[in-house]
Amino acid sequence: MSRNEKSSGKSSSSRKDGGERKKDIARGNAPIKKQSKGKPEAKPASKVASKVAPKSDGIRLNKYIANSGMCSRRDADIFIAAGNVSVNGKPVTEMGYKVKLSDDVKFDGIKVNPEKPEYIVLNKPRGFYTTGSLEKGSKTVMDLISKATKGKVVPVGKLDRQASGLLLFTNDGTLEKQLGKPKNGIRQIYHVELTKPVQPEDLDKIRSGVTLEDGKVKVQEVSFIENRPHNEVGIETNSVKPHVVQRIFKSLGYEVEKLDRVVFGGITKKDLPRGNWRVLTKQEIINLKAL
Questions:
Q1: Per-residue pLDDT for 4 more than 50?
Q2: Which residues, including other chains, have CB under 8 Å from residue 198's CB and lie 6 or more apart?
Q3: Catalytic residue among 24, 57, 143, 160
Q4: Is the pLDDT reported for residue 198 higher than 80?
Q5: What DSSP state is assigned to residue 65?
């Protein structure tokens, strides 16, 4: 081959067609496809958003139920398919159905709380309100358990500002209502300090039952505290009537100076200093739900 032939734009090839060497597509030399007419280059933003939005719009129903502690996600799917779950009053059997925190979700007729159930007990000191006060700068029991949880828990029952002792907090609405029903009641023992000594015959009257303005109150036991003055009394009652202990003694002419709840259900103040809180044990939770 002559030198001129080598420098020409073409080279002889061993390929049969003798054509030019094709460009290597793998090196990025692939031809650009022309956009066909009538077809947009990209999908409209609205259509793309409609596919992405549901991911952040709510939470899957099975996860919502599992978060409540009622069952696992897998079991929740079974119950959903069986029609055991309703959302805003309507049964839902669709897998992957999403709900919002504001939706009313019920499992076998029981309202579901999407947060994990929490149970906390506080040994309340005197001077703290159980609920919010209109007084500026007043202290509440919520201040004392602020580091216990980030969830929204509420106190079960009340203790007066000057009362002390055990106070339960939970976000388990079912248990809260259960413990608050008068027909159920809950075992409570109080250490009561009065402004004057109590007469033994008045203790007998309390044991027989005292009639207040909202009905008769029965107590399980009332007695003097061993090795203490007779103005200090222990009283056990299942009543959930408001201010029931104070009203019992007031009806007999006594004024309560100090009130300390030392037992609530099966929970005691053992190893729980005043002003401190702790999480309930699994067994304590089981016992409370069995009341």
A1: no
A2: 224, 230, 231, 233, 249, 254
A3: 160
A4: yes
A5: H
